[in-house]
Structure formats: structure tokens, C-alpha cells
Design the sequence.
């Protein structure tokens, strides 16, 4: 990725990942670490395979790609899907709202073009992203956030899907989505006792 072309110090990248099910896109946003400058979009990968439908993951085996606010928690160079970056699913919100005994797990961004609940971006795509994530971590970025949305959570899109069984959940996600859209800064997120996300 040509970080310098976007005004980012290639030796000190801070990255943020944002995925959308509708349109099947995984965006890479970046800035120079330890600065307050806004994130800029530096790369978009096509999500080469998908499973499940719109809506969050709530139990093991449902085939759903999670929706919500996550972090990378594993770097797997020996993945069955070439390379993979693991997400911290289930997070605190998922543990409140998903099947208590069998919420599922092992959700990754990985190579290939097949999946059951993960985000495959082809072997070439994961090679590029894996190197960037490794460089960001080596440069001092302890937490790499990954936000996964069903679609762009604009008022218009939410209104068009207001009768969905997931409408309340998506409305809850929209505060974090909107904060980033308006500021190109990451929101400070928390989870309440019911598993709802809050922006602080």
C-alpha cells in the first residue's frame, strides 16, 4: 500500500478496518501513529465470498458473519486459508446477546474466496493486509479495530429497513458508524449491561 502517497509515515502506520456486507467491501483506513490527524482511506478489498444474511451472528453454526465493533486478536501465518487475522468474536456485546452456551467463534479475515462466517479477501489480498497489520503492530499499534456493518448505516438506509427484525440492533450500531463518518476518528466505545454499544 502506498501510505506515503496519503501523507502517512510508512514506518509508523496506524490502521483501522471497516467492512460492509452489502457491496462486499473491506476498507483499510490509516494515519501516522500517535497523531490526532483524521484517518484516510488507503485501500478497499473486495470480500470474495460470503455466507449467511444481513444481521449479527448469534450462535455457533448459523453461518453468519458478525456485525459490530471488534479488534484483531490473532495473527495466523499457518492458516488453512493461506493467512488469517482473527477477530475477538464473541465480544462483550455478543456474549450478552448471543447463545450463552454456543455463541460460536474463530472468525477471521483470511485468504481464498470461500467462507462460513468469515471475511475472505483472496490470497493476494490477505498477503497485502497481513503485511500492513504486522507492520502496524511492530510499529507500536497495540489495538487494530475492525468494524463490521450490514450496510452504510445512514438514516435513509436505516429507514428503508425499519421493519427488519434487526432494526433496533442496527440503530444501536449507527452511533459508532456516524461518529467515524463525521470525524474520521475512532469512537470510544463501551458496552452496557444489556449488551448495547455506547459511544463515549
Sequence:
Amino acid at each position: 500500500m502506498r501510505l506515503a502517497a496519503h501523507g502517512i509515515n510508512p514506518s509508523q502506520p496506524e490502521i483501522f478496518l471497516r467492512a460492509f456486507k452489502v457491496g462486499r467491501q473491506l476498507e483499510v483506513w490509516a494515519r501516522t501513529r500517535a497523531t490526532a490527524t483524521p484517518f484516510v482511506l488507503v485501500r478497499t478489498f473486495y470480500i470474495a465470498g460470503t455466507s449467511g444474511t444481513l444481521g449479527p451472528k448469534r450462535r455457533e453454526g448459523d453461518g453468519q458473519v458478525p456485525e459490530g465493533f471488534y479488534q484483531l486478536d490473532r495473527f495466523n501465518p499457518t492458516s488453512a486459508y493461506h493467512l488469517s487475522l482473527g477477530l475477538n468474536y464473541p465480544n462483550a456485546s455478543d456474549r450478552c446477546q448471543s447463545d450463552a452456551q454456543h455463541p460460536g467463534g474463530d472468525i477471521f479475515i483470511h485468504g481464498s474466496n470461500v467462507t462460513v462466517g468469515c471475511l475472505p479477501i483472496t490470497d493476494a489480498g490477505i498477503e497485502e493486509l497481513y503485511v500492513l497489520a504486522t507492520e502496524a503492530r511492530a510499529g507500536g499499534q497495540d489495538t487494530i479495530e475492525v468494524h463490521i456493518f450490514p450496510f452504510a448505516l445512514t438514516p435513509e438506509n436505516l429507514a428503508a429497513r425499519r421493519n427488519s427484525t434487526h432494526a433496533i440492533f442496527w440503530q444501536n450500531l449507527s452511533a459508532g458508524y456516524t461518529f467515524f463518518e463525521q470525524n474520521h476518528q475512532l469512537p470510544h466505545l463501551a458496552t452496557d449491561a444489556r449488551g448495547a454499544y455506547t459511544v463515549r
In short: The CA atoms of residues 169 and 196 lie 8 Å apart. Helices lie at 92-97, 123-138, 155-160, 167-183. The longest strand covers residues 68-76.
